[in-house]
Amino acid sequence: MSERKPEPGPEPEARTCQWCHGSGFVTRAFAYCDGTDPFKGPAETVHRAGECRHCRGTGDYDADRDPTLR
User: Fold this and answer.
1) Which InterPro entries does this one have (predicted)?
2) Domain limits at 54?
3) Contacts of 39 (CB under 8 A, 6+ apart)
4) Residue 50 falls within a domain, yes or no?
5) Which of 4, 30, 48, 55 has the greatest number of CB atoms lying within 10 Å of its CB?
6) Cα separation, 15 vs 52, whole angstroms
7) Residue 53 domain-assigned?
8) What is the pLDDT of residue 7?
9) Under 8 Å CB-to-CB from 22, ≥6 apart: which residues?
10) Could you give the CA distance from residue 13 to residue 16 in angstroms, rounded to a whole number?
């Protein structure tokens, strides 16, 4: 007896955001320099999670909602 395998249909449209990989958040780096001159001296770097600006935190990319394309 042979089993029939279903024919592969078209692939669903990839909607997962390629910048945040579907999480809705990306890592942002901030630097802080002590004193009045922000460009002089050693800086402390902090990494924080921020909302992805391409999918606006949804994780599903849609070119109509991407503010970087406007």
Assistant:
1) HSP_DnaJ_Cys-rich_dom_sf
2) 14-28+44-69
3) 33
4) yes
5) 55
6) 14
7) yes
8) 67
9) 16, 59, 60
10) 9
CB 24 within 8 A of CB 52: yes
Q: For the chain, what's the residue count?
A: 70
Instruction: Kindly state the tokens that stand for 22.
Output: 């579907």
- pLDDT attached to residue 34: 82
pLDDT along the chain (70 residues), means of 10: 65 76 91 82 87 89 79
pLDDT at 63: 82
User: Are the beta carbons of 28 and 55 closer than 8 angstroms?
Assistant: no
Does residue 21 contact residue 54 with C-beta atoms inside 8 Å? no
Within a domain: 35: no
